[in-house]
Amino acid sequence: MAQRTTEVIVGLFMIAGLAALLFLALQVSGLSPKSAGDRYTLYANFNDTGGLAPRGKVSMAGVTIGAIESIELDTETFQARVVLAIDAGIDNIPADSAAVIRTSGLLGDQYIDISVGGDLESLSPGDTFYSTQSAMNLERLISNFASGR
Amino acid sequence: MESSAYITLKDVVFSRAGRRIFDGVTLDIPKGKITAIMGPSGTGKTTLLRLIGGQLRPDSGQVSVDGHNVPALKRKDLYRLREKMGMLFQSGALFTDLSVYENVAFPLRVHTKLPEDMIRDIVLMKLEAVGLRGARKLMPSELSGGMTRRVALARSIALDPELIMYDEPFAGQDPIAMGVLVKLIRDLNSSMGLTSVLVSHDVPESLSICHYACILADGKVIGEGTPEELRQHPSDRVQQFLNGQPDGPVPFHYPASDAAADFGVTGGAL
Amino acid sequence: MMDRIAALGRGGLDVISSFGRSGRFLVGVLAGIPRPATGFPLLLRQLYFVGVLSLAIVVVSGLFIGMVLGLQGYTILSDYGSEAAIGQMIALTLVRELGPVVTALLFAGRAGSALTAEIGLMKATEQLSSMEMMGVDPLRRVIAPRLWAGFIAMPVLAIIFSVVGIWGGMLVGVDWLGVFEGAFWGNMQSSVDFVDDVLNGVIKSVVFGFVCAWIAVYQGYDCVPTSAGISSATTKTVVYSSLAVLGLDFVLTAVMFGDF
């Protein structure tokens, strides 16, 4: 076979591979080019994060607006301190909004939903959510119900 | 003729898989002549060529080619030395995925930086020398055994080597192909002044073209000299080999226990 | 009895020495950096044989495996009313496991055995020897391009396999069984992470590619140069590659996705 033909065919093969990788990146893993960078940080303290994990989503009215960057224990208050990375475009979250841990579906992943408040002032980078609502613990709920409290 | 030896082997000992193949072989191969190395099958004639080419290392002893001690050479120097050697393998060893033309051009492309038109001229010249200029577009699978060997010969002389080694060039060839090869080997030697080493067990053909011959058996040189000297050689073993007698110092029977016992004809066993 | 113990010991030593030989062989192959002018066309040629010619079997297998995953996933998940999760299930199984592993197994059978047979035949017909005598190192000229080609082609094939498989799963799940398309992709995107899942899968296939190509060229180079030797080397290539891939897959999975 002519050298040239081989070159073209192998070239097509490699391009197909790259295109497939791009497909995996964009369509399958939902990696979007703008997701990196342009974000600012907010904090939220919870008594119980339940099954919340880093890289989980942060949403508002069901729309993803950021991701959970890290979760660590505050050794003074013994609360979990969650670092949220919010898209820079969403810069007008009312200051009295609450961060609520929710579960997608009955058994799905946990994520943080921000329930919007009515304050005219908005949270600026580095602020902490004033009110939070911890994970709903199904077991505790059931045992509370059973013991009649 | 020892003064102009191109290859010298001195007390070469080589064993493989626990079997001693050479047990102190000493041999001089003169420059510019055709030397035939003959011997029964399985005496390691091909191994000898590999020792000369540096593909194998002897257990002890010296192998020197053109003044270089082959086993002691570094990889790089060994590869440089090999550029001066051509070797014709028993099977021809053409690269099956390349055409005849590309096969002959292969050493030129690898070792020289000649422009394409010069490579073309050299390749066609070499193919012309073996009478196969017209076959340059064929693939090795389309060639007959004799033609394969001629192409391989053209390839091994592509770089104009100083030494060329033939491994069983006549084995399995029809009389015409054999005649062609005999003529080619002789012509190449006389026209290019090549030192030629010929390994073969075809006695008449080898003796007809060589200037000097030696016979190997059981890891030793059992006879050497010009073809004339060998024909007059006093040793029984040399005579048995040259004349192809079935029985002699080399027995017809493989060593075995007593035949009568094997066949069970000794009384009382049944 | 003593004989058996001795044979066992000898067998063990044989195994160890063949590991040693293959290691030295690998060093010899990788030692010289090929000149781009001569090396690149050779690599391209081998990429064609090793990669492009394996594409058909990889695409067809990927399509069917994806479709089977779609069917099986749907029947199981619909019991829990969560058939929308099949996108996630298909994508994760393919990208993390089946893509690299099945591609490697197919590769060993299709390209690995061909490489072994080709190199073995070159050895048997003295082509490697004659190359050596021409002052050309066959390790660099013949073996190295094949090793690199396997190494490069495998991740490409594995990625294509995963994509075709996901497409096959979508065909069954969305087009035939009626899973809502938005949920199919949405679930997939929220659970598949590019670095943790996709890139780890690619790393797996890179490792498998290297191991399969290494085993294939080594078995060819080390074979007994007879027809029986070549056929047994070809068998060994497929068997050893498959075992190596499955064993390494466990180790890599434990390191990448295990929690310790």
Automatic annotation (TrEMBL), chain A:
Residues 39-116 form the Mce/MlaD domain. GO terms for molecular function: phospholipid binding; phospholipid transporter activity. It holds the Pfam family MlaD. It comes from the Bacteria. PANTHER family: INTERMEMBRANE PHOSPHOLIPID TRANSPORT SYSTEM BINDING PROTEIN MLAD, INTERMEMBRANE PHOSPHOLIPID TRANSPORT SYSTEM BINDING PROTEIN MLAD-RELATED. This is Outer membrane lipid asymmetry maintenance protein MlaD. It comes from Marinobacter vinifirmus. The gene is mlaD.
Automatic annotation (TrEMBL), chain B:
The keyword Cell membrane does not apply. One of its GO terms (molecular function) is ATP hydrolysis activity. Residues 7-243 form the ABC transporter domain. Keywords: ATP-binding, Nucleotide-binding, Transport. PANTHER family: INTERMEMBRANE PHOSPHOLIPID TRANSPORT SYSTEM ATP-BINDING PROTEIN MLAF, PROTEIN TRIGALACTOSYLDIACYLGLYCEROL 3, CHLOROPLASTIC. This is Phospholipid ABC transporter ATP-binding protein MlaF.
TrEMBL record, chain C:
Keywords: Cell inner membrane, Cell membrane, Membrane, Transmembrane, Transmembrane helix, Transport. Part of the ABC transporter complex MlaFEDB, which is involved in a phospholipid transport pathway that maintains lipid asymmetry in the outer membrane by retrograde trafficking of phospholipids from the outer membrane to the inner membrane. Probably responsible for the translocation of the substrate across the membrane. It holds the Pfam family MlaE. Its main location: membrane. GO terms for cellular component: ATP-binding cassette (ABC) transporter complex. This is Intermembrane phospholipid transport system permease protein MlaE. The keyword Transmembrane helix applies. The lineage of its organism: Bacteria, Pseudomonadati, Pseudomonadota, Gammaproteobacteria, Pseudomonadales. The complex is composed of two ATP-binding proteins (MlaF), two transmembrane proteins (MlaE), two cytoplasmic solute-binding proteins (MlaB) and six periplasmic solute-binding proteins (MlaD). InterPro entries: ABC_MlaE_roteobac, MlaE_Permease, Permease_MalE. Belongs to the MlaE permease family. It is a multi-pass membrane protein. One of its GO terms (molecular function) is phospholipid transporter activity. The chain crosses the membrane at residues 47-71, 147-178, 198-217, 238-257. It is found in: Cell inner membrane. The keyword Cell inner membrane applies.
